[in-house]
Amino acid sequence: MSTEASNTSSPRVAEFRTQASVLTQTPVAPTRYVLLSLATLVTGYSIKAMERKIERGDWVESKVWRRAPDGRILIDLVGYQKWVEGA
Questions:
Q1: What is the pTM of this model?
Q2: 37 with 76: CB under 8 angstroms?
Q3: What pLDDT, on a 0 to 100 scale, did the predictor assign at position 30?
């Protein structure tokens, strides 16, 4: 196998490498509440899927999500974990 063939990668691998590079360069501090844009990376749910769970009441306000003072939706990662565990 030539080294040229082994160095080529799929678009998904290239996208992952780009995202990993950005994440390693971005300082992140642990936090309990995150915006939907970060929650999608942490949970694997799309923003639309999370919005649907909130609209349908699958995710209860003050347990899995909260509204920030500026009106934006924040996901409570502790509440999300409890929801996943069925608690």
A1: 0.66
A2: no
A3: 75
Q: CA Rg, the chain, in Å?
A: 17
Residues 36, 75 contacting (CB under 8 angstroms): yes
Question: Can you give the pLDDT at residue 25?
Answer: 63
- The three-state DSSP-derived secondary structure of the chain is CCHHHHHCCCHHHHHHHHHHHHHHHCCCCCCCEEEHHHHHHHHCCCHHHHHHHHHHCCCCECCCEEECCCCCEEEEHHHHHHHHCCC
Which domains does the chain carry?
Answer: 3-84 (1.10.1660)
The total number of residues written for the chain in this structure = 87
Please give the pLDDT value at position 11.
76
